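Supplementary Methods, section 5.1.

A reviewer requested that the exact input to the structure prediction be made available. We therefore reproduce it here, unchanged from the version used in the analyses.
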Amino acid sequence: MSGSKTIHCLNCGYSFQGNYCSSCGQKASVKKLTWKSLSDEFIHFFTHAEHSFIYTSRSILTNPGNVVKEFLDGKRKKVHKPITFVLIWFAIYKLISAGYTLIIGWLNLEKFTRSEPTLRILWHGSRNKVLTQYENFITILIIAPILVLLGWIIFRKTKTSFVERWVALIYGSAYSTMISTLLATIGFIFKLLQVPFKTGFINDLYFLIYFFSITWFIYGFEKIFQPKSSRTAKIFLALIMSLIANYAADIVWYFLYRLFPA
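The structure derived from this sequence is encoded token-by-token as follows.
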């Protein structure tokens, strides 16, 4: 190493020899930013650097309880970290949704004929515009205690801590965002093909997809964290909790609009 060139790290200023800074770990050679370097970094993210992101995304759809258990058991290299995982999927959802909106507006696609959904039994009635402005925030306040209840039921006989249960809920939020991305894509395809569906039918279809997705998610957790329970009990619990999770917001909003009419 005596013949190696001494390099001053551009990140921390430390002097070192070799390919990487022994103080902060940055590469010795830092290339000038170009469009090619940015595209290479994007491709690298999805093909090399983030195998854990692809693995976690695939596994949380096929076996949600197992991927969370792997992370809690210490397989932190294999499974993507929960906070960054949910943030990445939230960003993907926002970008995809915005892209669909731009394309629909640019092509001036025909909108669906409006109608009331069938499965959303409390959907009917006028809406207070002031409350509607805070719909997302209020819905989060409604769903939060439901998620806590779900976590308690699933982990009631385990030795997991409160923080570990919230990690599972964070992965659940990422799972929900993935389903929302799927629903946005389905809606975009319908509009792109100009399928003559009514808004009520689309809303019912979304409800069914989300209902069975939540059922699968809860069942997946029960299967991993409550292995001694019967399969029938797991399915029944998943169905009941999925109904509660899906209808809780509707029920609260129904009474809010009754108390504060338009």
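The CA atoms of residues 219 and 238 lie 5 Å apart. These observations are discussed further in the main text.
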